[in-house]
Every structure is written in C-alpha cells, then in structure tokens.
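Today's session is about reading a structure prediction critically. Students often jump straight to the picture, but the first step is always the sequence itself: look for stretches that repeat, for charged clusters, for runs of hydrophobic residues. Only then move on to the predicted structure, which in these notes is written as discrete structure tokens rather than atom positions. Here is the chain we will use throughout the hour.
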Amino acid sequence: MFEALDLIIWPLVAALVLTGIHVYLGLHVVTRGVIFVDLALAQMAALGTAAGMLMGWRHEDLSTYVVAVGFTFLGAILFAITRSKDDRIPQEAIIGITYVVAAALMILLFSKSAEGAEHINYLLVGSILFVTPAIVGKTFCLYAVIGLIHWVFRGEFLRASENHSARQAPDARTRFWDFLFYVTFGFVVTSSVKIAGVLLVFSYLIIPTVAAMLFVQGNRNRLIFGWGFGVAVSVLGMVFSLALDIPTGASIVATFGGALALLAILKTALKSSTV
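Below is the predicted structure for this chain, in token form.
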C-alpha cells in the first residue's frame, strides 16, 4: 500500500496543479462557447513538440518547449483575429480545422520514424505517472504567475469572455484581452501537454466545468465544485490505473467520462423525483 502511495504522490500533486488552473480556464472556455479551443491549442502544442523531437531534441528539453510554445502562439493569434460577429464562418469551424490539420501534420512528421507510434501515444495520453518533483515545481510556478495575472485583471478577462458569448463585434480593447487570454492559455496548455497529453488536458479543462454546471450556479460555486470533482476523479483514475495495470492518462480520462455520466444520471433522477 505504501509503495503504491509513493508511486502516485507526485502524479497526484501534478493532478492538483492541473486541476487548479484548468477548471478556472474551463469556465472561460464554456462561457465563450468555444469548447474545443483547448483541444486545438493542445494539438498545436503537440505538433510543436513533435517538430522539436524530430530536430533531435528530447521531449523535456527547453528547446522543444520553446518550439511548442511558438506553435501554440500561432494558434492563439489565429483564434484572436478570426473572432467575428459574422456567423457565416463560426469560430468553432476554424478551431476544428486547426485541430484536424495539426493532428494530421503530427502523424505525417512521425510517419517515417521507427518510434512514431510511441511518440504519438505519448503526446496523446502523456506520462503523468512518471512526473518528477522538478517538473511539478516549475509547472506550479508558471501557473501561479498566470493565475495572478488572471486574478489582477479578472474583470477584463471576464468581460472579454462575456462579450464573446454575446456574439458582440469586438473592439480593439476586447481583441487585446482576447489575445492575452489565448496567450496565457497557450502557456498553460503547452506545459500541460508535456505532463498529461492532449486528451487529459481537454478532460481537465472541460469535464469538471460541465459537471459543476449540472448542479451549481455562479462561477465561484462552479469553480469550487470543479476543483473537488477534478481532484477526486484524478485520484480514482490513478487507483484504477495501478489496480488494473493500465495507462494512467487514459485511465483518468475514462474515469472522468464515467463520473460525468453518473452525475448526469443522478441529476436526471433528482429532477424526475421532484416533478
């Protein structure tokens, strides 16, 4: 038992760090109505990481991270400048196109590599079980700085998100805060993909927020509910991973999906009982 605890202690700390920042950003993403923006940016980060690895750098090298951030910034710029009140081309369409093209390019980059399939699997589901204290510490410091920026300018960020959801034509001020949101979002996603992979990053960002929306109102309550849900499911997913000897990242993602389904059933049952 104690050996198992030693094995998951740092992955658990990493899960706490990921949950903390992603649930908050998830509230903004849901408010904006661009649910798959994180998946697209995460895939851009993965594409940048793939490019760095094919240049001969290791996954954990700073050079690889810089390239991944650069690719993510390209996506951030694209999503900031393509925001429009014109519904003929919804931004979700541009986000979806960005995702599939980035995914296809990543596959093409690794298609001639003997370890291509292993690299693709790594970028999709990550290796959170083998995270180190150093990586957790650096990630926490980065997220703390980004969290502080969002706290200080929370009114501006919230106004930009609400403006987005209202489909109002953005002015120069809104576009600036929109771009800053996506830039900070890009730093978070790039760092998270290195730890958890594309699929788990999406799960941390969206599923706790959706679960919170089923039961509570208000951003503060949803944030607290989402944090609790994210941490509990992370622990459960890691336990399943160790007990069944299955990949940790995929186990947590599947547990997120199962927990959300159970909550949806519970919500339906509670609603039916009050009718």
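Discussion point for the tutorial: The CA atoms of residues 93 and 275 lie 39 Å apart.
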